[in-house]
Amino acid sequence: MRNKKEKIIETILMLCAAVSVLTTIGILWVLLSESSSFFSKVSLKDFLTDTEWTPLFAEKHFGILPLIAGTMLTTFIAIVIALPTGLSIAIYLNEYAPKKFRKVVKPLLEVLAAIPTVVYGYFALMVVTPFLQKFIPDMAGFNALSPGIVMGIMIIPIISSLSEDALYSVPKALREASYGMGATRLQTAFKVLVPAATSGITVSIILAISRAIGETMIVAIAAGQQPRLTLNPLVPIETITTYIVQVSLGDVVQGSLEYQTIFAAGIALFALTFVLNNISYFIKKKFQEKYE
Amino acid sequence: MKQKFDINRFKDNMFKYFGLACTLFGLAVLSIFLINILIEGLGRLNWQFFSSLPSRMPEKSGILICLLGSIWIMVLTAIIAVPLGVASGIFLEEYGKKNKIASFIEINISNLAGVPSIIYGLLALEIFVRILGLGKSLLAGSLTLSLLILPIIIVSTREAIKAVPKSIREASYALGGTKWQTIRFQVLPAASGGLLTGVILAISRAVGESAPLIVIGALLYITTIPTSPMDDFAVMPIQIFNWLSRPQKGFIENATAAIIVLLLITFIMNGLAIYLRNRWQKKIKW
Fold it and tell me: Among A134, B5, B82, B222, fewest CB within 10 Å belongs to which?
């Protein structure tokens, strides 16, 4: 009787855990089934090589490249901001800062990651863009630069927190050996600690990139809705996520080709982040084995 | 020799200030944003703003419906996601440590944690809205957000359970407790602080989320207060997004005022989580 009850409970718990497997299957199934009807009407070659994305216009083009370019451009700007800042913060808090300062500052920085993204969208549109326009007069009201910068600020805590954890977990002996040789804190940090913590730092960067690629509201509010194959950060562009939002806001008939385009765009987005997430997962697993 | 030593010292000191500058940059941006929001929006916060329905005129609009919508979403999401997430966490940490199913589920969860939130919207649009026929209801919205925050709850549950020392478990087994009794009466109470912290942070994430809800169609101009889980709804972040996308200045002011309310909710929840975590860490010394 007792054993039976235990078994039932274990089964219930397992079923709950199975929900997350079902979620993954559901995501794959939904994306694949809807986009397979899309790809029966639009060839994969057009999708990957056409340089225009105009599914909502009379003359329709279905090239995903402009959306990917927009996504990459904002992500690149975000990483350019977040990587040096986040890594410097991590090294500073780990090697230089007084313990008390670190204890106060770390949770404060993490507040940056807790702010809802729609709020960041407001900042990008109403604060950062007008500020930048003072220096760059021909910058458009919607552009890739200011949402990119704001997104960078948002992901600073991802890089700083996770990198700091990685630096912290480097064995003490390595650090002491370096100081024993007369190295400064800077030399120890960049020549000993950062190389030793490479995998952890890489994981933090990949997670930050993946977060920036999937970010929706900031770019939907401040980057515009004009799919454009460009590297110019001053003109309106459109990201994959913004396109999905744009279609969702309109009255698109379910089952129509326009409706299916959001799933095709979704599968491109999913593929990008899926690859990145798996790379980081395997680096993380390898890293854990190394130090335990 | 002396010369080189000095240069390294100099570089070392320079980096110290650079690192400090980077840290302060993060904090400065945060403060500038917050101050800007307060200046722009504080004047709009009054009783009328809290008690009014959306309107075509900005000065007559209010957040009553979306605030209630957010509270509904918060409660429903908690009811759905917390039991599921905690149960999954218990299974993975206590039961399935070695077997293949568990390691498969684990890879799965770490993958789900990295899936962009808008993809959950696409999943929900097809499954909850169309196939299950839930429409753009509160229930469909909370189910969507539940799936989104499930990985967060699972991971924090596992961490909280991991922190419970072996001796507590062994004492329970020694007294003849079964595995489930041990978990139910010893491990979970001991892990409750960490558990609660994770749950609050996850819910706070759900309250601020808007992209998946836009995909399932929650951006509605609704003028009726939601009274059941099957009603249409709007939430705070979506109302803010809606106001931001309008040209009139009055709506932007409304958006900033609503942002103050949304940030207040977020900060209270995060503060509560940090407080609970600290108290729990201080109180229990194994």
Answer: A134
Of A21, A93, A116, the CB nearest to B266: A116
Chain A residues with beta carbon closer than 8 angstroms to that of B256: 122
Q: In this predicted structure, what is the pLDDT of residue B286?
A: 54
Expressed as residue numbers, the domain containing A168 is 65-291
The burial of A204, by beta-carbon neighbours within 10 Å (0-12 exposed, 13-18 middle, 19 or more buried), is given as buried
List CB contacts (< 8 A) between A216 and chain B.
116-118, 210-211
CATH at B276: 1.10.3720.10
Interface predicted TM-score (ipTM): 0.91
Nearest CB neighbour to A184, from listed B12, B201, B217: B12
Range(s) of the domain holding residue B181: 47-283
**A108 within a domain of the structure (yes/no):** yes
Is residue B3 scored above 60 in pLDDT? no
Q: Where are the beta strands (DSSP E) in A84-170?
A: none
In a domain, A15, yes or no: no
Number of A to B CB contacts under 8 A, please give it: 259
- pTM for this one? 0.91
- Residues with Cβ within 8 Å of residue A208, at least 6 apart in sequence: A78, A79, A82, A83, A86, A155, A158, A159
The sign one gets for the Cα dihedral A263, A265, A269, A271 is: positive
Chain B residues with CB under 8 Å of A14 CB are 91, 95-96, 101
